[in-house]
Amino acid sequence: MADKISTRSVTTTTQEKSVEEEERKLEREFRATPKLNKSPLHGLWALTNRDLVKWYKNPIQLIISLVQPVVWLGLFGKALNFGSFISSSVPPAQQQAVYLHFFGVTDYFSFLSAGMLSFIILFTAAFAGMSVVWDRRFGFMNKALSTPVGRGAIVTGKVLQSVIRSLIQAAIVLVIAILFGMNTSHLSVLTVAGSFSILFLMSFGLSSLFVMLALRSSDWQTQMAIINLLNLPLLFASNALLPVTIMPGWLQNVVRVNPVSYANDAVRQMLLGSTQQLAPLWADFSVLIGFAMVLGALGIVLSWKLLSK
Quick check: 193 pLDDT over 60? Predict the structure, then answer.
């Protein structure tokens, strides 16, 4: 009997020690410094998501950014009736032939709608650099530079948040254009996916350009001046609003070196089946891929040299 009691006491003592050791182990793990995730992708997503949260939690900013393209579609696109220059006695088939000759599509509104997609991409990408300026002014940039996150990831995060915002806004503009009467005969999952692939490349390249120009800037007025200096020439020296064929020769040469023109050309070929082509579709993709890769790489390289506390 005494042996049984002794055995039970030993067993109980052993169990108690085991429980105590387990509790101490849990307490040590709880009090231990959390492991730092040094993955480049983790840091990249954290920085990208930070800017996106500020954006989608402020719906007024999204609404304001959509006002301008909607005004262009609703007022300029519908009010500028090129059909009024064609005699009313001309049969509709001949009117469409005139549109096809000058615009490559059967109506000007559809032509402009495709241009508005690059319009919203251009103006959203232009403000990617402003985020860098504000982060410098409010001290967040110094904190980001003190973390293990690489400088290239900081720049890429700024670019990616701009690209995501641009594509979301472009999708909204496309839906609005369809509701207003854009030609949808060539619309399909494949053409929409191809168009947004082109817009992604354009947005990535332009966002990289504007972020790169803001790397050493802490003055928002200087950055706004740069935006105004580049945006309008990039827009009007392209085929976003008017076809290349009616432009003067010197301007046509400028249009052909503008990456925005190749984005418009590819989108119109895929979404509208445009017969007016600036270049074959494969050439449009090649130009935009090269544009995005060169400016993206240049932005990362310059961040190593220019991005500092």
Answer: yes
